[in-house]
Amino acid sequence: MTRIVRCVIPNSRANRRWRLQFRFAVHAGWSRVPELWSLGHTTRMTTIAIVGDYKAENQSHVATSDAVGHCSAALGLAVEHRWVGTEELARPEGMKRLAEFSGFWIAPGSPYKSMVGALSAIRMAREQRIPLLGTCGGFQHIILEYARNVLGFADAEHEETDPQASRRFISRLTCSLVGRTMRITLQPDSLVARNYGRTEIQEQYRCSFGVNPEYEDVLRSSTLRIVGSDDEGVARVVELAGHPFFVGTLFVPQLTSARSAPHPLISGFVKACSYDRVA
């Protein structure tokens, strides 16, 4: 039976975390309410920025928001997420908006309204060691930001937004992966494999663009490691060596997250965002 509880807590900044902790405790199960309530004086709120241009009709966007709730509740962490539009980040002083967040999730939904906004958030996370997860379009733009600002390919482009570009680091896949579920093999020593607890996984895709095969060897010799590949050896997962959590997946892990089975990679991301809050 569904239990409905009305709990009125004064609407102030000081009490905001109490309301969210109570909500997450209820989501996790009634047995967690006293436990999380008792953490009120020692646990601070963790806030995650979901960078993307939210559309309610986009299944991947809805799943992104839901997955944060699944994982934070299961972990017993007080976590809030907010969507931040890419155009907002491209405005003067727009990047200051991200200062309040503990981690960034670069959401699916490419092409973004502002590529500059998305790339700026990725660069900030990379340079300032802020936990970052990029899925689908987020993965593609992690590659693009790294190619431009680390590998020195200032003209690196995405074929979806500039099909005539001479250096298309992200190109159209020979076979669209939209709606497909495929096997990925992970590098045993990778952070991603440790989060999954295994080296072979099955995941869903919603994309038609990926790493241009012409540039895979360049990536393989860099610190942005290719740590997950499909059965044909094509790059599907990357992570940045030496970073607390900087991961990109071409697949969309949030589509398989559920309240009863939170996704392990997203749980790892949420923990990374919350680490300094509960340490």
What does it look like?
The chain has nine helices and twelve strands. The longest helix has 17 residues. 34% of the residues lie in helices and 20% in strands.
Identify the quaternary structure here.
single chain
Q: Give unreliable regions as ranges.
A: 1-28, 30-42
Strand content: 15-25%
Rg = 19 Å
Count of distinct strands: 12
| Spatial order of strands in the largest sheet | 2-1-3-4-12-11-10-7-8
Structural class of the helix and strand makeup? Answer: alpha/beta
The overall pLDDT average reads 87
The main pleated sheet reads as: 9 strands, mixed
Tell me the series of helices and strands, N- to C-terminal.
HHEHEHEHEHEEEHEEHEEEH
C-alpha termini separation: 37 Å
Percent helix, as a range, is 25-40%
The number of helical runs is 9
> Quick one: overall form?
globular
Question: How do the strands and helices of this protein lay out in sequence?
Answer:
Blueprint: H1 13-28, H2 33-37, E1 46-51, H3 59-75, E2 79-84, H4 86-90, E3 103-106, H5 115-128, E4 132-135, H6 137-149, E5 157-158, E6 168-172, E7 181-186, H7 191-196, E8 200-204, E9 209-211, H8 216-220, E10 224-229, E11 235-240, E12 246-249, H9 264-278
Parallel strand pairs: 1-2, 1-3, 3-4, 4-12, 5-6
Antiparallel strand pairs: 6-9, 7-8, 7-10, 10-11, 11-12
